[in-house]
Design goal:
- This protein is an alpha/beta fold and 191 residues long.
- The chain has one domain: Rossmann fold (3-Layer(aba) Sandwich).
- The chain contains six helices and seven strands; from the N terminus they run H-H-E-H-E-H-E-E-H-E-H-E-E.
- It has a seven-stranded mixed sheet.
- Helix 4 links the parallel strand 2 and strand 3.
- The longest helix is centred in the first third of the chain and has 11 residues.
- The chain starts with 5 loop residues before the first helix and ends with a strand.
- The relative contact order is 0.16.
- It binds S-adenosylmethionine (SAM).
Length: 191
């Protein structure tokens, strides 16, 4: 069983664990594949401290919601809201068990999921939920580590998804675009 729950993630965030920062190469790929938001809705799943949701909202112009199951991560994200202008909407909830109707929008032009897919216990079920939320013509952007790209001695070696998990991710989309970033792979998936 892969831990994808609040009980696993909340103490990590509150004890200071942080994940790889967004870098220019990654945000350039994001802009290239998603395009400008022009006020359309975006959803960042597993938004953590909110860096990607803020980027979508303030730099790319999406009206963004970030959802995360860890209350301490959501609090960290909300603490970085700016005083003037709009901010992303933050929701604390589990994307696999929560009520999708509780999200601010019924459908999203962009759904992002950075360093989260690997942790989804039931990946087909998770992907079904994403498909329910993705607007026609929308884009599902996934950033995930790929297995086999680290040295055997690297303690983070187990973080990559397997070839079978990658196949589950990419099956059933009409457009699949892939870009590699060292140990990561970015997927732009369209229905
Ligand atoms: C490795 S962190 C990545 C955080 C952020 N996306 C980033 O790139 O820094 C994984 C995040 O996914 C969240 N998460 C895991 N399972 C989740 C679920 N079922 N629903 C919502 N959030 C979840 C965790 O709380 C955690 O913040």
């Amino acid at each position: 069983m892969i831990p994808s729950s609040r009980a696993y993630w909340d103490p990590l965030w509150s004890n200071g664990r942080r994940y790889r920062q967004l870098a220019t190469a990654e945000t350039a790929l994001l802009a290239e594949h998603l395009g400008p938001g022009n006020g359309r809705p975006a959803l960042d799943i597993g938004s953590g401290d909110g860096a990607l949701a803020r980027h979508l909202h303030h730099q790319l112009g999406y009206r963004t919601t970030g959802i995360d199951c860890a209350p301490s991560a959501v609090a960290l994200a909300a603490a970085q809201d700016i005083a003037s202008g709009t901010n992303p909407t933050w929701r604390c909830g589990d994307i696999t068990s929560g009520n999708l109707d509780a999200l601010p929008d019924p459908a999203y032009a962009a759904i992002t999921c950075r360093l989260v897919y690997r942790w989804m216990d039931d990946k087909p079920f998770f992907l079904d939920r994403v498909r329910q939320l993705l607007a026609p013509g929308g884009c599902f952007w996934v950033v995930t580590e790929i297995a086999g790209r680290r040295e055997n001695t690297d303690r983070l070696k187990g973080l990559g998804i397997t070839a079978a998990e990658a196949e589950t991710l990419t099956a059933g989309w009409s457009v699949v675009r892939i870009a590699d970033l060292d140990v990561f792979r970015c997927y732009a998936l369209r229905p």
